[in-house]
Amino acid sequence: MEASSDRSQPVSQPPLYDLIILGASGFTGKYVIREALKFLNVPSSPLKSLALAGRNPTKLAQTLKWASHPDHPPPIPILTAETADPASLHHLCSQSKLILNCVGPFRLHGEPVVAACAETGCDYLDICGEPEFMERMEVKYHEKAMDTGSLVISACGFDSVPAELGWMFNSKQWVGPAAPNQIEAYLSLESEKRIVGNFGTYESAVLGVANAEQLVELRRSRPKRARPAIPGPFPPKGPIIDHQKEIGLWAVKLPSADSVVVRRTLATLTENPRGLPGLNESLEQIKKREAFWSTVKPAHFGVKLSSKTLLGIFRFIAVGMFIGLLGSNAIGRWLLLKFPSFFSLGWFRKKGPSEDEVGECFIQDVVCWTRLQ
Ligand SMILES: NC(=O)c1ccc[n+]([C@@H]2O[C@H](COP(=O)([O-])OP(=O)(O)OC[C@H]3O[C@@H](n4cnc5c(N)ncnc54)[C@H](OP(=O)(O)O)[C@@H]3O)[C@@H](O)[C@H]2O)c1
């Protein structure tokens, strides 16, 4: 969703905060606070004022203490907001230029936050990895966001950003007449300790599988988007499991939100080859935008989950099969969500990874390509 009209501020006062982090007490939220503090009031940073928001002020205060350690917690306001209470969200949005939403699963909690931002003109970012939520929000709130000048950007979490930047960087390296045909990202997680994910991500994945049909229906109900003109034939399907000797990884295709994010950008770029115009762009900004997007080339894009060992790949497949088979019925879902550690073979647990486990985990996103003959 892109802001293109004049921002009609419903409140006469300028917003109090540059940024409010919503859901700041969660597993991801606490790391977002820690990063935000590094930029708060640093001379070169535009982040001059910050507030934290969520439904439990005590927990938020404890999280701020954790994120500030070993320093004393800075005097950052803590605001109460609950996604089931639209008035609290409106109040939040009227106080900030930007809301960074870390409350998930987004299909359960995200829509009221997008709605409040679109209605008030506040900008919105999230860490969502749920294609159906992103596409539904665009359908429902694009017009409103255009009217109020709210910029709504989803999928700003870890894996979507490197995937999209990797595709753009890779595609810009090609100098005519050579052009890319297929770009593949190999996502691998390595650790000296156990690799453990938080329950929030697992729950979002399970609910995504459970509601896969809704995404299909949503797409069917929408006009077809432009298809990019990718030179060369459609790439062959290839094996289910592949071994890339050059990067030392075994890999299996991952039906991930990252591929969807890149495909949506490609469709938007096909419809707007010079990029989407921003709000009140200067001549220099227009030139820069057009110069940048004209060098990004379309390609078939996919993501593969990778491991140094073939056994690691079989574990991914087993977890995928559990979620795929059990996620589509109510009893199966109950089992998956009740026993996350069992059904994810230890990769996800209710209380999430320890700080040590997070510190040791190394996530690698390698982008490979196939040259067009
Ligand atoms: N794209 C990525 O790279 C990436 C990475 C990590 C996570 N994620 C996504 O981010 C989401 C959150 O994951 P997580 O692991 O951080 O989950 P989490 O630890 O369960 O945190 C959820 C946060 O939302 C808050 N919350 C829940 N319901 C709320 C409500 N009704 N009103 C206000 N706040 C509410 C919780 O507050 P309390 O503390 O009061 O319970 C908590 O602060 C998931 O959808 C996950 O898939 C994406």
From TrEMBL:
Q: Any idea which UniProt keywords this protein has?
A: Membrane, Transmembrane, Transmembrane helix
InterPro entries, alphabetically? NAD(P)-bd_dom_sf (IPR036291), Saccharopine_DH-like_oxidrdct (IPR051276), Sacchrp_dh_NADP-bd (IPR005097)
Protein family per UniProt: Belongs to the saccharopine dehydrogenase family.
Q: What is this protein called?
A: Saccharopine dehydrogenase NADP binding domain-containing protein
Question: Among the entry's GO cellular component annotations, what is one?
Answer: mitochondrion
Annotated organism of origin: Salix viminalis (Common osier)
Annotated TM spans: 313-336
The answer to keyword Transmembrane applying to this record is yes
Keyword Cell inner membrane annotated: no
Write out the GO biological process terms.
glycolipid biosynthetic process
Q: Saccharopine dehydrogenase NADP binding domain: from which residue to which, for each copy?
A: 20-152
